[in-house]
Specification:
Layout lengths: L1 E4 L2 E7 L3 E7 L1 E4 L2 E4 L4 E6 L1 H18 L3 E6 L5 E5 L3 H5 L3 H6 L20 H10 L4 E7 L5 E12 L5 E10 L1 H5 L1
Antiparallel strand pairs: 1-2, 2-3, 3-6, 4-5, 7-8, 7-11, 9-10, 10-11
């Protein structure tokens, strides 16, 4: 659609996913008016489209990753806000079971590794200060009774005012490496 706005004309093309604007404005050269070539072309992605792409990408990662990818939020209270589909293969629990009860895996940890169970911000702070590295290895018996060694990497997520709002991380099956 061609829109005339005073001395400037804008050509706007919109679709569900993209908006393109071309602005044309008159210029004076030797006391004669002539149209300047396209002055500015703006192209922008729809924010809704960006969110859909991000969600689609996250789902692809979650569905196709061998590792378990997760996000735990601490505010307003601790909860798992994302866990990949691979949690069922590694841990033996469905995503839904973990969302409903994030502490469900603790009883399946080897006794010496229960100190690494994270159910709160305080748990994470205690574990992260005592761990020499960001990688923690735990011995785990999954829901099916299989003995697994799992490497867990958790990274802090900071929000406004540098507040620790949660963690993102992954869990990897390192059983073969530990047994050889």
């Amino acid at each position: 659609a061609l829109l005339k706005t005073g001395k400037e004309a804008k050509l706007v093309f919109e679709s569900k996913h993209k908006t393109i604007e071309a602005a044309i404005s008159p210029v004076v050269f030797n006391n004669k008016k002539c149209l300047q070539a396209v002055l500015q072309i703006l192209s922008s992605e729809s924010p809704q489209n960006n969110n859909k792409d991000a969600g689609r990408i996250l789902n692809e990662i979650g569905s196709n990753s061998i590792d378990v990818v997760f996000k735990m939020d601490f505010h307003p209270k601790a909860k798992i806000s994302f866990i990949s589909d691979s949690c069922e293969k590694l841990l033996g629990f469905t995503k839904e079971e973990i969302y409903q009860n994030p502490g469900i895996v603790e009883p399946y940890l080897h006794e010496k590794d229960k100190k690494y169970a994270l159910e709160s911000k305080e748990d994470y702070l205690k574990v992260s200060k005592s761990a020499k590295e960001k990688r923690i290895q735990v011995h785990f018996h999954n829901k099916r009774g299989e003995s697994k060694f799992i490497e867990v990497v958790a990274n802090p997520v900071y929000g406004k005012n540098k507040r620790l709002d949660g963690i993102v991380g992954n869990m990897r099956d390192i059983t073969d490496r530990m047994l050889t």
